[in-house]
Specification:
By secondary structure, the chain is mainly beta. It is built from 1 helix and 9 strands, in the order αβββββββββ. Strand 3 and strand 4 form a beta hairpin. The radius of gyration is 20 Å and the shape is elongated.
Amino acid sequence: MIRMSPARAFLCALPITTLLLIQPALAENFYLYTDVGESSNVDRYQVHPDGESGNGPRIGYGAGVEFQSGFGMELSKNKLGERYQEYWFYGDDGITYDRSFTEYDSIGLFATYRYRPEETGFFAGGRLGVHRWSRRAMFSSPSIDATYQDYLSDNDLAAGLELGYRWHPQWSAALTWTHYVVDEVDSDRLAVRVSYHFK
């Protein structure tokens, strides 16, 4: 596992931000996007047989800028997944149970590169950056009327690939894969993205 302090995350993001500030004239297009994707399980706790995974398709969104060289930067916001579990116990007083709910969110800053064969509309690219993940967990035990909440966040690395097609000067679609380092495990997110380009 690779863990990053806020200072190291800032140092990684600084060259990207500097490039955006000192070379605005080189920007080829600015875009906004939304995507629908599914992430692998990021819950580090053992899955109970009665647990229900909530890592189904979820909506993400972001914004980016691309320079004439093909390099650029991108800011993203994604929900990496959630899990709801019930733990059943059979005791002298009958059946009792505990509940747990955990969800993960991510905000990422990436350096990007896209290769575009001339006059085809197709493109392929990759991204590398840092993301700030957060984990919110809630545990409750109705049998003893107790509730416990926990919040944890940290900075870690993320990287991904994409393959897409720009069928209109202002519209494109892509299939993206992003690998996130989260807590003590990793998460992979596969998504279908639609982007609107302002330039």
